[in-house]
Design goal:
The protein is α+β, with helices and mostly antiparallel strands. The protein has a single domain, classed as 3-Layer(aba) Sandwich (Trna Endonuclease, Chain: A, domain 1). The chain is built from two helices and five strands, in the order H-E-E-E-H-E-E. Strands 1-2-3-4-5 form a five-stranded mixed beta sheet, sandwiched between helices.
């Protein structure tokens, strides 16, 4: 399995996981000029922007949360602003930025990972 396929698999696992928690998937792989948001979901009165990091035990970076630095957070926030600008029907919702890490199949869900 190549890197893209491995990443896509992680995003699928993450999407299934949050749907099981009651989220509705709004969009996946949302692109803007500054980057991509892996998953956008709606949960009650929240619009949730989710970054997914899928790693295996052979990854150089064992704790995927540390790869979401301030620069990456800024790119996600800018994409979120663009999403809200182009999908104004979601503007009345509160927003939240979450992270899902997957390491050898173990899911770690971090709500309010950054603002």
């Amino acid at each position: 399995m190549n890197k893209k396929e491995f990443g896509d698999l992680g995003e699928k696992i993450a999407a299934d996981f949050i749907e099981g928690l009651g989220h509705t998937i709004v969009d996946t792989k949302f692109h803007c000029r500054r980057g991509e948001i892996d998953i956008i979901s709606r949960y009650e009165d929240l619009l949730v922007f989710i970054e997914v990091k899928n790693r295996n035990r052979h990854s150089e970076e064992f704790d995927a949360r540390f790869s979401i630095d301030k620069n990456k957070q800024n790119h996600i926030r800018e994409c979120a602003r663009y999403f809200l600008h182009t999908h104004q029907n979601y503007c009345a919702l509160q927003i939240r930025f979450d992270v899902i890490t997957i390491m050898d199949g173990k899911i770690d869900y971090i709500e309010n990972a950054f603002w």
